[in-house]
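Lab notebook: predicted structure, single chain.

Context: the supervisor wants predicted structures on file for every construct in the current expression panel, including those that have not yet been purified. This is the next one on the list. No modifications to the sequence; it matches the entry in the shared construct table.
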Amino acid sequence: MSPYWLNDSCSPFSGPEGSCNLGNTPVYAIDIDSAATVAAGLKFAQDKNIRISIKNTGHDYTGKSTGRGSLELWMHHMKDISILDYKSPGYTGRALRVGAGVQFSEAYKIAAEQGLRVLGGYCPTVGVAGGYVQGGGHGPLAASYGLAADNTLEFEVVTVNGKHLTASPSQNADLYWALSGGGGGNYAVVLSLTTKAHLDGATAGTSIVFANTATDKYWDAIGAFQKRLLYLNTVPGFATSWGFDDQAFSLNVATLPGGEQSNMTAAWDPFIKELQDLGVPLISYNTTRHPSFYEHYKFYEFPPEIYSTNNTIGGRLIPPSTVQNNLPELINVFRNIVTDATAPIKRISGISLNVTHDRVGNTAGSNAVLPAWRDALYTLNVGIGFDADSSSAELRQAQAKVNSWQALFEALTPGGGAYLNEATFDNPNWKKDYFGANYDRLLDVKRKYDPAFALWQHASVGADVYWKVADDGRLCRTP
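Prediction complete. Output recorded below exactly as produced.
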């Protein structure tokens, strides 16, 4: 979780005599083990007019899984996993059902043991069924099968009035639609998720690193990489995770399910030649082939420090037209960000994947994923790192800086948006940028299943209808 939501708090185990305060940490938490426990927690909180927060793993940049003065529904121990043969009007085949506490590393492993692979993200400790999928959910297999929300078959939920429901395209279809990309923890409490499971097989990979040894050539090389993405996103299944600062660029991993090393070499040879022509030396370059996706994933798994909590990020979905028509302007924004002397640690990163409706095989409106995803070349992050003991004032400065960086991309991406799980909570354009044309329909679903707006999250649908955040961080009813 971003320290913006943790700072000025203390350990809940410090005892009643501690001199610090809980800050944004919930006052009490219920260790959820069943639908009945969720229903009881929801009833108690609403009867006593207590704020509710829902937390699984707490990978959270926007403060959705915490809340000052709240009662937390802690989903982390809902660890059931099962593989089943699923049959419905829209899908017949293998599926994975996971409890709300199951993480990617657990789901990937169980699926692989059965010769299968499922949609998930890059970080092994993120939960499968929580805010990840409810926000859309990207990952290394998305270019093959679509976003996590595109693969969801059904949700098991408890609504705020205590009803235990299934939400699928044929049951409570409006709730299923909203939960599939319309934002986490805002419409109902998800107990489990059933997602498509795909036949596993060989997976090819690549990583590349080069350094900034000559500034202008370095930025020409990054421009060449951007242009190369235009081709790579036409290759079915090709996904990349990459990042850079003013010192070096790294392609952390390129993923091609069903590919061979020769496919990777052919895909990257033109770019490698451009680097050579520019005189930009490679620090490393490798291609691999593993017999399964899980083995590929483990080989390229990022080190834990990549997921340090001492950072905050903003983001923007970048369409192909920005690279095709405004590449010099885009590179200029990149340079200005990573050379900003007011931020000591900064980095730009991206996940490129093609999730157009033609590639995924669904239609517009089939779920609540932000429509701008379907036109995106990649999802971009801009981030600031800081010391673990940074003050609240320093964190606010970092948040303001990231917002200013995030805004720099708006003029280059007219009509676009951002991946709501990797953006800022206080973006003034959050409705348009995070939900787009889906917002009004999502608000209708919110009013139907949570008419008193008992579930509240920053920058979530309906956040400004009944509640406002008071100066002390608690929620107050709007007049």
